[in-house]
Amino acid sequence: MQTSQFWHSQHISWRKISSTAILCLLSVFSVYAQEERMNNPEHDTKPYYFGISIGLNASQYKFTPSKFFIDYDSITNIKPIWKPGFQLGITGNLRISNFIDIRTIPSFILREQAIDYTLFGDSVLKSSFESILLSVPLELKFKSDRQTNFRFYVCVGGKFDYDFNANNRSKRPDEILKVKPIDYGVNLGLGFEIYYPNFILAPEIKISNGLGNSLAGDAHEITTKAIERLTSRMLIFTLHIQG
Question: How are beta strands 107-119 and 124-143 bridged, if at all?
Fold first, then answer.
């Protein structure tokens, strides 16, 4: 009986201790949250600001097969390959309201896109395209309420790309596929703004899809005749450092 009472009293004691510890931790976190200092409070009222953007991308072509590809077996399979790339840009942001901005991020993008063709007899013909793009997007940025030093946002807009390395005018006989220099498309992304005393860090992930047909070149090549339409797509991870 005494043993039972002892364990019962111990159970109540441990329960009280646990409850007290949890309340203490909650109190500490509450005090910390209340004392957390808001960094860069004047940033929210700036009419415009600038920054730099550093990013990594993965790009791939998306294709529509042609009637030639369907009717003939010269090429039995076409497989676009994802390839990594890098980009560097300058951010310009214009404040419209507390929750909406207009921004542009002119960027130089280094990317590689590749396509593998499986020919009749199962031999594989590999092709890759190294591009140096000047990309100029124009986007709307929809922001959430600022939570002390944190904010969530989404962005949507369009883009214009110019490829300095496009081979549409190339006369080389070994070109497997030719692409146009000009492209346009749409962007959709989301990110977080983290406020520090002297700058804002904004990691962002974005999908960028081309809408124009990039296919160009000699229609006598079976690799060109097998494709009706060729568009680009990229997955981009960017770190924006804003002032």
Answer: antiparallel
Tokens of 172: 């080389």
For residue 12, give the H/E element and its range. Answer: helix 2-35
User: CA dist 219 to 179, 224, 226, Å?
Assistant: 12, 6, 9
CA 93 – CA 89 distance, rounded (Å):
13
Coil, strand or helix at 5: helix
3-class DSSP assignment, residue 140: strand
Taking the C-alpha atoms of residue 18 and residue 241, their distance in angstroms, rounded to an integer, is 44
Closest CA to 167 of 180, 176, 156: 180
What is the distance between the alpha carbons of residues 129 and 221, in angstroms, rounded to a whole number?
17
Rounded CA gap, 181 and 183, in Å? 7
Query: Using DSSP, how many helices (H) and how many strands (E) does the chain show?
Result: 3, 12
What does pTM read for this prediction? 0.79
Tell me: the pLDDT tens digits for 25-75? 455 444 444 456 888 888 888 999 999 999 999 999 999 998 888 888 888
DSSP string, 14-63: HHHHHHHHHHHHHHHHHHHHHHPPPS-GGGGG-SEEEEEEEEEEEEEEEE
Give the distance from CA 31 to its chain's centroid.
Answer: 37
